[in-house]
Amino acid sequence: METTLRAARPGDVAALVALFLALRKEEGDASATEAAARRHVLRALARTDGVVVVAERAGRCVGYGEAALARSRSGRWLRRPPPEGAICFVYVEPTARGAGLGRALVAHLVAALRRRGARVVHATVRAGNDPSFAMLRAAGFSPATINLRMEV
Ligand SMILES: CC(C)(COP(=O)(O)OP(=O)(O)OC[C@H]1O[C@@H](n2cnc3c(N)ncnc32)[C@H](O)[C@@H]1OP(=O)(O)O)[C@@H](O)C(=O)NCCC(=O)NCCS
User: Fold this and answer.
1) What is the pLDDT of residues 18-42, one digit of tens each?
2) Are 49 and 95 in contact (CB under 8 A)?
3) Would you say 70 and 84 are in contact if contact means Cβ atoms under 8 Å apart?
4) Is the CB of 92 under 6 A from ligand 1?
5) Which one of 42, 53, 66, 115 has the fewest CB atoms closer than 10 angstroms to its CB?
6) How much distance in Å is there from the Cα of 75 to the middle of ligand 1?
7) CB atoms closer than 10 angstroms to residue 3
8) What is the pTM of this model?
9) What span, in angstroms and rounded, lies between the C-alpha atoms of 32 and 35?
10) Distances (CA, A) of 133 to 12, 14, 18, 31, 106
11) What's the average model confidence in pLDDT over 125-138?
12) How much distance in Å is there from the Cα of 54 to the middle of ligand 1?
């Protein structure tokens, strides 16, 4: 079945809230509420420096991606550091996975950030999230830094 990628619209809010909640749940964040997810989605759609893309299949959103321009990490010392981008979230419904949608969403976000001036795009993956790491590698990302954490 054909899937199309398009910019998110105000009419997608309910679908985006459901996808964002599903993403949070899969990430093990039980504290995410519908109200908080709605606030997040509305804020993301209103951002002028952000991009929200949905994957639509048979009139239904089966995935989405969110990215934004971010403060330059590499050119902080410059007077006018060039903008960089960040992939914030990518989610594909379990039944739609493994067909290249995640990679296509990432490619769409990267192209949109590039059009807005970014020449570097960052992404963060939780340790152990092999599908996400594989998707980003397949989309052209390579490891830059590794953050370590210890509970004390
Ligand atoms: C990560 C996610 C978006 C991938 O979506 P997807 O549509 O299944 O990914 P794709 O089909 O585009 O796969 C892209 C690449 O990743 C690889 N990949 C995808 N899932 C994989 C898995 N479970 N194990 C290993 N590799 C995997 C694919 O083989 C493909 O590589 P290839 O092109 O070299 O074959 C999806 O698994 C998801 O929504 N996960 C939960 C949310 C999440 O973790 N999001 C990322 C953090 S915000």
Assistant:
1) 999 999 999 988 888 999 999 999 9
2) no
3) yes
4) yes
5) 115
6) 31
7) 17
8) 0.94
9) 8
10) 27, 28, 23, 24, 12
11) 96
12) 16
89 lines ligand 1 (CB under 6 A): yes
Superfamily name with CATH number, domain 3-8+50-138? Gcn5-related N-acetyltransferase (GNAT) (3.40.630.30)
Sheet with 60-70: list strands edge to edge.
Answer: 3-7, 50-57, 60-70, 84-92, 121-123
Q: Where are the domains of the chain?
A: 3-8+50-138
The whole-angstrom distance between residue 105's C-alpha and the CA centroid of its chain comes to 8
CB-based contacts of 36: which residues, under 8 Å, 6+ apart?
Answer: none
Q: How many CB atoms lie within 10 A of CB 93?
A: 17
Structure tokens belonging to residue 71: 């403060």
